[in-house]
Amino acid sequence: MKFVINEELGEKIKTLYLIDGLSCTKIGKEVGISTSTISSFLKRNGIEVVNKQNKLLFDLDKDIIPKYEQGISLSKLAKEYHTSVQTLSKKLKAKGIEIINHQNETKFNEHIFDVIDTEEKAYWLGFIFADGYISSRDNGFELSLKGSDIEHLHKFNKFMEHNKDNVKLGEVKNKDKTFLRCRWEIVNKHLWNTLNNLGCTPRKSLTLQFPNISEELEIPFIRGYFDGDGCLSYY
Predict the structure, then answer these.
(1) Does domain 1-55 have CATH number 1.10.3470?
(2) Residues pairing with 182 in the sheet
(3) Would you call 212 exposed, middle or buried from its count of C-beta atoms within 10 A (0-12, 13-18, 19+)?
(4) Which of 63, 58, 36 minimizes the C-alpha distance to 49?
(5) Which of 98, 99, 169, 199 has its CA 20 to 30 Å from the CA of residue 148?
(6) C-alpha separations of 213 from 119, 195, 202 in Å
(7) How far apart are alpha carbons 135 and 202 in whole angstroms?
(8) pLDDT reported for residue 51
(9) Max CA pair span of the chain
């Protein structure tokens, strides 16, 4: 009959293995379970089972902390040094080091519009005034264009210094027709407040006014606005 390890016993086994550093053999003797059962349980929970004689040979201060402060995730460090994320997390916390989920870190330059001091910033601000959208509920910002203009959004993505390709391409249905649309969107309180203070408010078509920027940057701003919403007509 297969032995079932309940939640309480499972946590004890993980603590004995990861925190106290006991081998599967010693844990088995302590809790009355076979070594193979202990080993299988740890592997099923994503914990690499290694020879305890080779375990935790790293130096936290020399090996782990410098790499962690450079932005290397705990999961990668745990794999490199044959340990677990939980072990590294507890040891770093004991050193007073804040544990950061790098997946939730800001991935772009949220301060890029704090000061409009270049032609490029003025251009993109004008483009956002024409085509941008900021939500009235969740600090969301979106720039949406037709699918054929996707390269322009890639330029915007580069300008925003996003570390990934944040441009999404998808289909939009309008009545009986389907169109391609590309979008760049993000939820960020600082960017939302910055654009809002510059005059790009929710429902901006009712409130939009020329922003307070230096005179030499008015032309690139207008060019950006025209690229976003302008047209040439002949009568």
Answers:
(1) no
(2) 145, 169
(3) exposed
(4) 36
(5) 199
(6) 11, 13, 20
(7) 6
(8) 58
(9) 92
Reported as a single tens digit per residue, the pLDDT across 221-233 is: 999 999 988 777 7
* Mean pLDDT, rounded, of the chain: 85
Closest by CA to 127, choosing from 173, 160, 84, is: 160
What angle do helix axes 35-44 and 7-14 make, rounded to 10 degrees?
90
Mean pLDDT on 177-183: 90
Tell me which residue has tokens 């081998």.
23
Q: Are 134 and 191 in contact (CB under 8 A)?
A: no
Q: How many C-alpha atoms does 156 have within 13 Å on its Cβ side?
A: 30
In whole angstroms, give the CA distance from residue 143 to residue 185.
6
Q: Give the CATH architecture of domain 119-228.
A: Roll (3.10)
Predicted confidence (pLDDT) at residue 124 exceeds the cutoff of 70 = yes
